[in-house]
Amino acid sequence: MAAPAARADDGVPAQARQQTFVVQVAFDEEHGAIGAGVLVARDGDVLTLATAEHVVSEKGTLQILDVTRRNYYRVIDIQTLPDYDLALIRVYAQPDFTAEPVQIGDAAAGEPVTVLGNTGDGFWEPASGTVLQTSAQIPGVFGSPRITIACDACSFGDSGSGVFDSQGRLLGILTRAWRKKNGPVLFIEVEPAALIRQELLARR
Q: What number is the average pLDDT over the span 195-203?
């Protein structure tokens, strides 16, 4: 199963590209599920990526690739965060991987955001959006408050994509789109990055 190619002319800063990973589960050589992950912590040669929990819950072989689409990263372990569709994946860094983790920020209603991951036609293509709510109550298996955004260019398969503010800080991890039956998307659900920050601090 091959990862999609990244465009070279999409205007995404090199650092942001390096902080975004392909997260895919291979069912066989031709079929699988695919999403994105964001580098949120680094301890020497151990990287921690944040993604949507439902991406890594699929049965199959978990594969992590960087922006070069040639390097695979060996998975150490996966931790899920209760009450949220969030997972933290620890992997070993490649010897030549030099990127630092993202900075984490807090969302504000009405602010513009950029979604970076498996959006639109391929990986690492930015999609623009706007924060709608920062503490939305959404029904479902995960009952805790979420961020919601409007994002016309976001599409199916972009789970795990990072949602960033104008300063490049990670506000959350995109998990799913909500729409009326056979109708337009109402909003995009985003797991708050503040939860990731809390979990990383608790590990110290």
A: 89
Q: Which phi and psi (to 5°) does residue 7 adopt?
A: -80, 145
The string of pLDDT tens digits covering residues 141-172 is 566 789 999 988 887 668 999 999 989 899 99
Alpha helices in 47-128 (DSSP H): 53-56
Map out the domains of the chain with their CATH numbers: 14-101 (2.40.10.10), 112-199 (2.40.10.10)
Per DSSP, the three-state class of 3 is: coil
- What is d(CA 203, CA 188) in angstroms, rounded to the nearest whole number? 30
Three-class secondary structure of residue 111 per DSSP: coil
Q: Would you say 59 and 19 are in contact if contact means Cβ atoms under 8 Å apart?
A: no
Residue 96, C-beta contacts closer than 8 angstroms, at least 6 positions apart = none
Radius of gyration for the alpha carbons in the chain, expressed in angstroms and rounded: 16
- The 10s digit of each residue's pLDDT in 5-39 is 444 445 566 677 788 898 988 887 777 778 899 99
Q: State how far the Cα of 1 lies from the Cα of 63, in Å rounded to an integer.
A: 10
**What three-state secondary structure class fits 201?**
helix
Query: Model pTM?
Result: 0.87
